[in-house]
Amino acid sequence: MMSSKFSKLSRRQMIQLAAAGIAAPTTLALTGCSTTGRKGAGEVVVIGGGFGGAAAAKYLKRYNPELNVTLIEPQKEYITCPGSNWVIGGFHEMKQITHNYNASRRNGVNVVHEFVDSVDPAKQTIKLASGKTLSYDRLVMSPGIDFKWDVHEGVDSNTEKHLPHAYKAGDQTLLLRDQLQSMKQGGTFAMVAPPNPFRCPPGPYERVGTVAHYLKQNNPTAKILILDQKNAFSKQGLFQEGWRNHYGQMIEWVASQDGGKVHSLDVKNKTINADYGKVKADVINYIPPQKAGKLAFATGLTNESGYCPVNQQTFESTIHKNIHVIGDACIAGPMPKSGHSATSQARTCAANIVLAMAGREPISAKNVNTCYSLVTPDYAISVAAIYDFQDGKIVSVEGAGGVSPMGATPDVRKMEAIYTQGWYNSIADEVWG
Ligand SMILES: Cc1cc2nc3c(=O)[nH]c(=O)nc-3n(C[C@H](O)[C@H](O)[C@H](O)COP(=O)(O)OP(=O)(O)OC[C@H]3O[C@@H](n4cnc5c(N)ncnc54)[C@H](O)[C@@H]3O)c2cc1C
After folding, report:
1. I need a surface site. Which of 125, 190, 332, 407 has the fewest CB within 10 A?
2. CA of 52: how far to CAs of 47, 144, 207, 252, 412, in Å?
3. Do 130 and 222 belong to one domain?
4. What is the mean pLDDT of residues 190-201?
């Protein structure tokens, strides 16, 4: 049932295709795979138009233009978390981190702005909030994260209205920025940083830098206290070096074992009860512990970790056949939960779906992640890694990637700040362009 165009592609070409993920003109034509009655095409539905989902839809269509690809995302505009810390710090605008789905449509993806109520993995159907039902041959789910509101006493899902987490970009970003800007002179900004695993391991610490940048100019006697639910964090030495150099004594980080462990919060009185003692703050950025997005739970795709186990070669769920989970919601070995990881997984997953629907063997693509973080608008640090698939799981490739050097000159840090914006522009263009 495969077209001659497809069968001419060698295994080597396929590996290159997925590893590069950007072999733009290459397509994999195939026919006759649909279980949904549409002759000559397969039906692939993608739920979630964030980094993982929007990229998966694009690459599915690119790798096989004959596929019917439907992307379901309730929001007409997607606001990225990358760059949202820059908005909180007051040196970036929301419009610079807001994207739409016009390019997805131009790329041939059928975009549906609706909320998915439920998925029936046995019948391979999806029920939308409007009551409509869609069928799929393969489903890609990239629903992002949800918050655990039951870990600390005194909080619930309403807490975010008063103590913004700003860990889903949008209104939360603006609420935290506004609270920061209204903070009294000499006040305290307290952050409760989440335990592992969570979205964007350097995210809270980049935020500390951008908040400090704002305070240094507008409220120089204010303090930032980080009560961490862990004992170490991503790029820790580099962040702390940057904080010392730029913000002196403004920032205090308290590891879980040294008093950071939080027990309860009094939302009304903006007070945190931690091993450290009772902390009364003017602004509290409570970033709750995290788990996979709600729909992943409702579909029965999660395990006891709160995330979705997948075949780490194809990202197909190990629980439900023909459903692939990518991005923050999936368990992808050492890959951090980041927009870059989600986009890389989207390419690998799309290539393997196209192959599977043509009855071909899966390929083991290399995945990649880079995380840039600003400490000031002109000072950035980064971490990069390449991942391979070996012995049934994703592993880091030794010697590939690395982190920025400690003690680098201001010129090096400034170049990295320029690369940070370049990284943002190119990934946003890849996913929504
Ligand atoms: C402050 C901060 C800074 C960050 N900085 C970086 C960075 O510099 N670099 C980087 O790589 N990553 C960064 N990240 C991480 C990045 O934002 C996430 O890892 C990324 O968004 C994950 O993509 P995803 O597709 O898994 O989920 P998301 O991007 O969250 O997308 C999920 C989508 O699914 C949709 N959805 C959910 N449920 C349903 C449903 N039932 N029906 C239909 N649609 C649904 C949602 O509306 C959403 O649009 C940062 C995160 C934060 C919080």
Report:
1. 407
2. 10, 9, 23, 35, 31
3. no
4. 98
The pLDDT value given to residue 263: 98
- Rounded to an integer, what distance in angstroms lies between the CA atom of residue 204 and that of residue 211? 10
Segment 263-280 mean pLDDT: 98
Q: 316: domain range?
A: 4-74+114-144+293-365
Q: How far apart are CA 218 and CA 164, in angstroms?
A: 21
Nearest one of 121, 118, 144 to 129, comparing CA atoms: 118
CATH no. for residue 33? 3.50.50.60
239 alpha carbon – ligand 1 mean position (Å):
23
Q: For the beta carbon of residue 419, count every other beta carbon within 10 angstroms.
A: 14
Query: What total of structural domains would you count in the chain?
Result: 2
Q: Grade residue 337 by pLDDT with cuts at 50, 70 and 90.
A: very high
Give nearest CA residue, ligand 1 atom 46.
48
Give the end of a domain, one of 314, 338, 365: 365
> Ligand 1 atom closest to Cα of 115?
42
Q: pTM for the whole thing?
A: 0.93
CB 430 within 8 A of CB 343: yes
Residues at CB less than 6 angstroms from ligand 1: 47-53, 72-75, 78, 81-82, 84-85, 115-116, 142-144, 167, 199-200, 203, 207, 293, 295, 327-329, 337-340, 342, 371-372
206 and 261 housed in the same domain: yes
DSSP letter for 97, please. Answer: G
Q: Rounded distance, CA 31 to CA 41, Å?
A: 5
Q: Answer whether residue 180 is part of any domain.
A: yes
